[in-house]
Design a protein that fits this description.
The protein has 616 residues and is an alpha/beta fold. α3 crosses α7. The longest helix has 18 residues.
Length: 616
C-alpha cells in the first residue's frame, strides 16, 4: 500500500468516551463536564511528605475558576500568551486549564531550558505573563523575563521572593486563588472557545536547531485524544472513570500534554505525578496505573534492569525468561503455538510474568510508546514478560499522535500501527509520510515561511520516510533529514543501526556518522555498570574517562559493535568508533527532553574526532 491515501478507522465498534470528546467544543468544557459528574472523587495526585495526596475534580474546578478570574483581573485577554514553566505536578494541569479558560493561550516551556531558551520563547511568543513553579526554576527564567518587552507578570506556584524587580509584577499562586471567587457558573460561561481556536503554542524540542512554536488548536488535541481513547476503549475494554495514568514525561512536550494529561481528562480518569525518573519504579508500584505514556529509551533502561535482576536470580528464573522470549518471538513471526507451548505460556502467566507485573503495580493494561523508534527486540522482551506495549507515531505538528498499534489486532513490533480514526496518511513519491485531518496544526507561530514548507494543500509533510504495509500498518524507515547518504549514494537509516547497538550490554547510547563518507563510524557511550565490572575484573581504575583511552577497553567495546555488524549489510556496518566523553543528557543539550539525541549538537562536539577516524 505504498501509494494512495490510507484512512484510519476505529474498527467499527462504538466508542462512547471518544464520541463524547468529539461532541465537545473545547478542552475546558471537556474538563468541566467531567468535574460536574465526578465531584469529590480524586483527580490529580502528588506525593507530599511521603504520602500521596489527591486533588478532587471539584477542588480542581474551583481552583481553575479562581485562577482564570485572577488572570483576567491581571489583564490577560483573549489570545494573550501565558508561558508555563513547571515540573509535572497538579498545578501544571490547573494552570493550563485556567489560562485557556481566561481566553489565553498556554506556552509550555521545558524545565531544562537555559536563560537563552526562555528568552527565545518569550520573544517569539510575545507572552504577557509567566507561571513558574518554584524559585529554582525562576532563577533561569527571571533574567529572560526582565529582558523581554512584553512579559511583565510572574506568578509563582511555590512562594517567590518578593524582591525588587523594576516594573515586573510578582504574584503568588496561593494568594491569587484565595482572593478570587471560584465561580463555576462564570467559568462555564467563559468557556466559549471553538475547536478551531488556538489552545497552546508548543515549542519543538529542537533536534535540529532553534525551537519553532507549533500552533495547536483545541480541535487538534481533542481529535487526537478521541482517536487514542477509541483505541484503548475498544481494545483494552477501558472503563470510564476508572483508568489511572502515571505522568512522568515532561508536560511541556506535546506527547505528554495530549496523551498524559488530556487523554485521562477525556476518560474521566485519574492522574498521578511521578516524583522523577530516579523514583519511577517505586512510583509505578505504588500508584498502580492502568496506562502509561512512555518513550522507548525508558523501555531500554527497564529491559536492562529486569534482565539483570533475573540473571542474578539464575536457575529457574533464567530458564523461564528464555522460554518466554522464545514464545514471544514465535508470536512476533505469527507462528502458531503448539499444545505444549500453550501450556507453558499459561504457566509463565502464573510465575515470572505475575511477579514482574506486580512491580508495575499489578493493574497495568498497557504502555503506549512514542517519541522515537522502538527496537523490535525491546518490544518482544516486554511482550515476553506480559507487559503490553503499543508503539505509536506522531509529531508535535499533528497533535501529536498519528498512528498506534492496536491490541485488538496483531501487534507488529516493527510498525507503528494503523492511523488513528479520522486521520488520513499518504506516502509521497520520495517516501515521505504526509498526514491530513483535524489533528494537523495551524502552522508555526510567527513563521509563515516554515509553515508553508510543511503544510501543502491541507497535508502535513512530516519529514519522515516510511510506507504502509499490506495490513494498513505504518512503517517508519527514518527521519528524512537524518538519513545518511554515503559517498556512493547509498541511503542508510541511522536509527536502525543505533537501536541495534544500544541493545548490546556494553553500549548505553550511540550515534552513527558517515554522510558523504565511504563507510559508517560511530560515537558510543559505554554502559556504566558493565564498564565498572570490566575494570574491576581487569584490575584497572573504575574511571570511565581513563578507561576510554585504554586500548583493551576500546577493543571490548568494539567487540560489541562487531556483534551487531555481523547482522548488518555492508553499507550499514560501523567500521570504527570513538568513546564519548560523557553520557548524552538534557543537561549537556545532547538529548531533547523527550530523550532523542540531538545530532547537530553531537556533531559539533565530536565531529572533528569522528572525521579523524577516516584518516587515522
Amino acid at each position: 500500500m505504498g501509494a494512495g491515501i490510507f484512512k484510519g478507522d476505529s474498527l467499527g465498534r462504538p466508542a462512547p468516551m471518544a464520541a463524547r470528546v468529539d461532541r465537545t467544543a473545547n478542552l475546558v468544557s471537556l474538563f468541566l463536564d467531567y468535574a460536574d459528574e465526578r465531584g469529590d472523587l480524586p483527580f490529580l495526585s502528588r506525593k507530599i511528605n511521603g504520602a500521596w495526596r489527591a486533588t478532587s475534580w471539584s477542588e480542581a474546578a474551583d481552583i481553575v475558576a479562581s485562577l482564570s478570574q485572577a488572570l483576567i483581573a491581571l489583564g490577560i485577554r483573549k489570545g494573550d500568551r501565558v508561558m508555563l514553566v513547571s515540573e509535572n505536578r497538579p498545578e501544571w494541569c490547573l494552570a493550563d486549564l485556567a489560562i485557556m479558560a481566561a481566553g489565553g493561550i498556554t506556552v509550555p516551556a521545558y524545565t531544562t531550558n537555559t536563560e537563552a531558551d526562555h528568552a527565545h520563547i518569550l520573544g517569539n511568543s510575545g507572552a504577557r505573563a509567566v507561571i513558574v513553579s518554584n524559585p529554582k526554576l525562576a532563577a533561569n527564567l527571571l533574567p529572560a523575563v526582565a529582558a523581554s518587552s512584553a512579559c511583565r507578570i510572574i506568578i509563582g506556584i511555590d512562594h517567590l521572593k518578593d524582591a525588587q524587580r523594576g516594573d515586573l509584577l510578582i504574584q503568588q499562586w496561593a494568594s491569587l486563588v484565595a482572593t478570587h471567587a471560584h465561580d463555576r457558573k462564570a467559568l462555564r460561561a467563559r468557556a466559549t472557545m471553538k475547536r478551531e481556536d488556538l489552545a497552546c503554542i508548543i515549542y519543538t524540542s529542537g533536534t535540529g536547531g532553534a525551537p519553532r512554536g507549533v500552533r495547536q488548536h483545541h480541535g487538534a488535541i481533542m481529535r487526537n485524544i478521541a482517536g487514542a481513547i477509541a483505541v484503548i476503549e475498544q481494545d483494552f475494554i477501558a472503563t470510564p472513570y476508572r483508568e489511572r495514568f502515571l505522568s512522568f514525561l515532561p508536560l511541556s512536550h506535546a506527547y505528554e500534554h495530549t496523551a498524559g494529561q488530556f487523554m485521562p481528562i477525556g476518560m474521566g480518569g485519574e492522574i498521578y505525578y511521578a516524583e522523577g525518573l530516579e523514583k519511577l519504579a517505586a512510583n509505578i508500584e505504588e500508584a498502580q496505573p492502568t496506562f502509561m505514556v512512555v518513550v522507548p529509551r525508558l523501555f531500554e533502561v527497564l529491559r536492562t534492569r529486569i534482565a539483570k535482576q533475573i540473571e542474578k536470580q539464575g536457575g529457574v528464573a533464567v530458564t523461564l525468561l528464555n522460554q518466554a522470549l522464545r514464545l514471544a518471538r514465535k508470536d512476533a513471526r505469527n507462528e502458531s503455538l503448539s499444545i505444549i507451548d500453550r501450556a507453558l505460556d499459561a504457566g509463565l502467566d502464573r510465575t515470572i510474568r505475575k511477579s514482574i507485573q506486580a512491580k508495575f503495580g499489578g493493574r497495568l493494561k498497557g504502555m503506549v510508546a512514542g517519541g522515537a523508534p522502538l527496537n523490535p527486540e525491546v518490544g518482544i522482551f516486554f511482550a515476553a514478560i506480559g507487559i503490553s506495549i503499543l508503539q505509536g507515531y506522531g509529531q508535535t505538528e499533528a497533535g501529536p499522535v498519528i498512528s498506534c498499534n492496536r491490541p485488538g489486532r496483531r501487534i507488529k513490533m516493527h510498525t507503528v500501527g494503523p492511523p488513528l480514526d479520522q486521520v488520513e496518511v499518504r506516502i509521497a513519491k520520495d517516501g515521505e509520510i504526509c498526514v491530513r485531518g483535524e489533528l494537523v496544526m495551524d502552522g508555526y507561530w510567527m513563521n509563515d515561511a516554515e509553515s508553508h514548507k510543511v503544510l501543502q494543500d491541507g497535508w502535513l509533510l512530516t519529514g519522515d520516510i516510511g510506507h504502509i504495509d499490506k495490513d494498513g500498518h505504518l512503517v517508519i524507515t527514518d527521519r528524512k533529514k537524518d538519513i545518511i547518504i554515503n559517498d556512493k549514494g547509498d541511503n542508510v537509516a541511522p536509527q536502525r543501526v543505533e537501536g541495534m547497538l544500544t541493545l548490546q550490554d556494553e553500549i548505553a547510547q550511540a550515534m552513527v556518522y558517515g554522510d558523504k563518507r565511504p563507510y559508517l563510524v560511530g560515537l558510543v557511550v559505554p554502559e556504566a555498570e558493565w564498564a565498572m565490572c570490566w575494570a574491576r575484573d581487569k584490575g584497572m581504575p573504575a574511571d570511565l574517562h581513563k578507561l576510554a583511552h585504554e586500548p583493551e577497553f576500546q577493543r571490548a567495546v568494539m567487540a560489541a559493535v562487531d556483534r551487531v555488524n555481523a547482522r548488518l549489510s555492508v553499507i550499514e556496518k560501523v567500521r570504527r568508533v570513538i568513546i564519548a566523553d560523557e553520557a548524552f543528557t538534557t543537561d549537556n543539550q545532547q538529548m531533547t527532553p523527550s530523550l532523542k539525541i540531538r545530532r547537530h549538537v553531537l556533531r559539533s562536539v565530536y565531529g572533528p574526532r569522528l572525521d579523524k577516524l577516516y584518516t587515522a
